[in-house]
Amino acid sequence: MLSAKSLFQEILDNDESYRLFCSIAAGGESQGGWENARIAALAPAGESALAPKIARHGADEDKHGRIFNALMKKRGLEPVEVPPDTDYTMLLERRGIGLAHDRLKSDQPLTVRDIVTYLAHSRVTEQRASEQMDLLRRHFADHPDIGRAVRMIAADEDNHLAYCHEELLRFAHAGHGRAIQRVLRECALAEIRIYRDVSLAVMARMGRVLGWSRAKAAVLAAGIHAVYVYERAAGWRRMVTLKMPERRGALNGPATTAPEFA
């Protein structure tokens, strides 16, 4: 019987599929680390209290990239180049979601509107990341090889989501509520489409590596399409609601260090 646990266990047990999974994850996390570091460096003067939190967010993402690379190294594997059709962060940027890399590579300070856009984009993508890591945490928190990494990354993603809620509510109270809701909806609708496309691309490549039957591949593809239909109809709304998190100041203080996986 197909399940999220059995599917990931199959990916985990095969070196080539595991290497592809970790390479895709490491690439996305490292890219997120760079983006957040640049946003922190270019934050408006009036947001000096927010800049360290953005930097902490970037440090966490960079740490996650190092963790996925360390997991590969532990098994004697080298990273592979991330296929373009599986590059979630690159595809989001191409759709104009978030802040353009050309903007981040300049030395011009960001505006408050830019920061609102960044936070809204992060609120949507961190929802996805938190849900995915929570799924892995439920099934693999005690796994001898990846359990510690899963627990650490999942906790960080929960913190990132809490931070986005808190900061967006602060900006909403300052008069940016309409802009926030507009950007959140735009990001959410684009994200669910890109997530569908990336999921199909990843599963197609995993299927080739693992030798899945055409029937199994078709069932998995149908499941991905079904999730998209649900998210397009109603599920996207979970990505645009805002509520004050139970944990306030989730990104106060320095980032934790990556554990050793030797």
Structure explained in plain terms:
71% of the residues lie in helices and 0% in strands. The mean pLDDT is 95. The protein has helices at 4-13, 15-41, 51-74, 88-94, 101-105, 112-140, 147-210, 214-233. It is built from eight helices and no strands. Helix 6 (112-140) packs across helix 7 and helix 7 (147-210) crosses helix 8. By secondary structure, it is an all-alpha fold.
Helices and strands in order:
Blueprint: H1 4-13, H2 15-41, H3 51-74, H4 88-94, H5 101-105, H6 112-140, H7 147-210, H8 214-233
Helix pairs in contact: 1-2, 2-3, 2-7, 3-7, 6-7, 7-8
Instruction: Characterize the quaternary organization of these chains.
Output: single chain
For the report, how would you describe the main beta sheet? none
- Helix share of residues? over 70%
Beta-strand share of residues: under 5%
| Total beta strand runs | 0
Outline, from the CA principal axes? Answer: globular
- Briefly note the structural class of the backbone: mainly alpha
Distance between the termini: 34 Å
Radius of gyration: 18 Å
The average pLDDT score comes to: 95
Total helices: the number is 8
Q: List unreliable stretches of 5+ residues.
A: none
Order of helices and strands: HHHHHHHH
